[in-house]
Design brief:
The protein is mainly alpha-helical. It has a domain of 150 residues: hpI Integrase, Chain A. The protein has 11 helices and 3 strands, in the order ααααβββααααααα. Strands 1-2-3 form a 3-stranded antiparallel beta sheet. Helix 3 crosses helix 8. It starts with a helix and ends with a helix.
């Protein structure tokens, strides 16, 4: 994020230099360096642990459900809390899809609604809070959401630093790419403007690489027999 701000500043400074507002371009010898970051996501077992845990607190249950919905749709917090019934459309396959626009990029996102996501939509369709707001889910602030997720992680036995954005990472990795969904399809569902952004997820799935190579070993062994 910081690097993007620096790049924007560089464009303005370079333009100023070309317009002769500056005598020298201070960025002329500067080369951007990007630090690789690990995008944490939940494994199958961790996702299952959160899904199956029975919370005594209704507050934590709602937070968990929002997180799980994101895990199965890839939709970010800021877009989920604005979803209404008007965002649900009949897709070309005859099933329900969510069609919305990402606030961050204004890109149109079309996501088929998986069974577990549909269950959660149905669960809150008659909830008192959603009846008032007209949204698919009860509204909660991002600050409170991430704070409560710490409790969700603790009760579910998750040792990772659970944040809501991790649900989006989980959708990209554990739910889709690991299960063989093509990266181009995942990129469209995530609303990425460049497929290179989605490829970051593909690079961190070591288990998928291992599975692919093991399958190759079996295939090569069969050919040699």
């Amino acid at each position: 994020m910081m690097m993007k701000h620096i790049q924007r500043l560089r464009k303005i400074v370079t333009l100023s230099y070309h317009l002769e507002w500056l005598q020298k371009d201070p960025f002329i010898r500067w080369k951007p360096t990007f630090e690789k970051t690990n995008r944490e996501f939940l494994s199958d077992n961790e996702l299952s642990n959160i899904e199956s845990h029975e919370f005594i607190s209704e507050r934590l249950e709602r937070v968990r459900d929002l997180f799980i919905f994101s895990c199965y749709t890839g939709i970010s917090y800021s877009d989920i809390i604005n979803l209404t019934k008007d965002h649900i459309h009949l897709g070309i396959d005859g099933n329900n899809w969510i069609i919305t626009k990402r606030q961050k990029t204004n890109m149109t996102v079309k996501v088929p609604i998986l069974e577990k996501a549909q269950y959660l939509i149905n669960k809150y369709s008659t909830h008192l809070m959603t009846q008032v707001t007209g949204t698919l889910f009860p509204i909660i602030t991002n600050q409170k959401l991430n704070s409560y997720l710490k409790e969700v992680a603790n009760f579910s036995g998750i040792k990772k630093n659970l944040t809501f954005h991790m649900a989006r990472h989980t959708f990209a990795t554990t739910v889709t790419l690991t299960n063989g969904v093509p990266i181009e399809t995942v990129s469209k569902m995530l609303g990425h403007t460049k497929i290179a952004t989605t490829q970051i997820y593909a690079k961190v799935i070591e288990r998928k690489v291992s599975d692919d190579m093991n399958a190759l070993k079996v295939s090569l062994a069969n050919k040699s027999n």
